[in-house]
Amino acid sequence: MAEPITLTRTVDDYKSDEKPTWCPGCGDFGVLNALYNAMREKNYDPKDVVLVSGIGCSSRLPFFVSTYGFHGVHGRAMPIATGVKLARPELNVLVMGGDGDAFAIGGGHFMHAARRNLNVTYVIMDNQTYGLTKGQASPTAQTGYVTKASPKGTLEAPVNPLLLAMACGASFVARGFSGQPKDLAQLMLAGIEHSGLAIIDVYSPCPTFNKVNTFKTYREEVAPLPADHDRSNFDASLRIAASTEPRYLGVLYQREGPSYDQLLEERKSGTPADLPKLMDSLFERFS
Ligand code: SF4
């Protein structure tokens, strides 16, 4: 049985001196609160947590948390997180960013992060728009999304982040909603505890620019996973991920298997021990 955790910290211990600068009603507040509560529930020492972000409204999040943080360049949060995790594997590394950062500017990194399976948690605050630059259509914006840059509506189909993650080999794929921060905190903890890359796409409305995907519409569209869903079943999870009526929340897919950092450690520890054997066999061969 797991040792009980002695809670010595409150949510306030995880708040930095910087006050969030998001618009009133922004969905990212719910994600931030979920993160505070997830860290408090496990009594994480702030010095053991690193938050890495790219560019966008949601990527400001590390400023508001008293952990280590790295505000990187657009779309490059994952490579930075990879470097941090490989250098300091004992730290809890989370990438906190938006849908543009993850699926457009950082789209190539997303694919390789999923197949690499490094032990990192990637929380995507998905508001289906580029809020920071005044509301253009992002890769997850629905077809027909009207903006000043697309006054007749977009023509493209949206990316489904969950299907994309699964197709790229992700070992943990989940969806949350910032309107349900308690459940989201549990998803974050499940992601942190998962051995490998945990991808959590979070519906996080932008009330300033996206008047279509709102808290109200999500409340009507989301549903918990069916009680009998087997998250280790890839095909069943694909069907759940593809569903839009309803849009399921929870850990849709999870598979066991070594993370990249585990494989790397095995390789590193194996090399010196194998070297004498290898040398002996070479000497035998050429003597
Ligand atoms: Fe949030 Fe949208 Fe405001 Fe950005 S523009 S802070 S995403 S509500």
Please describe what this structure looks like.
The protein has helices spanning 28-41, 77-87, 99-105, 107-116, 161-167, 181-193, 215-221, 234-242, 260-286; strands at residues 49-53, 68-71, 92-98, 121-126, 129-130, 136-137, 172-177, 198-203, 222-224, 247-254. The longest helix is centred in the C-terminal third of the chain and has 27 residues, at 260-286. α1 packs across α6 and α3 packs across α4. It contains 9 helices and 10 strands. It is an alpha/beta fold and 287 residues long. The model has no long low-confidence stretch (mean pLDDT 95). The structure holds iron/sulfur cluster. Iron/sulfur cluster binds at residues 22-23, 26, 28, 57, 127, 131-132, 206-209.
Strand content: 15-25%
The SSE order reads HEEHEHHEEEHEHEHEHEH
Which blocks of ≥5 consecutive residues have pLDDT under 50? Answer: none
Q: Whole-number average pLDDT?
A: 95
Largest sheet: 8 strands, mixed
Query: Helix content range of the residues, please?
Result: 25-40%
Number of strands: 10
List the strand order in the largest sheet: 2-1-3-4-8-7-10-9
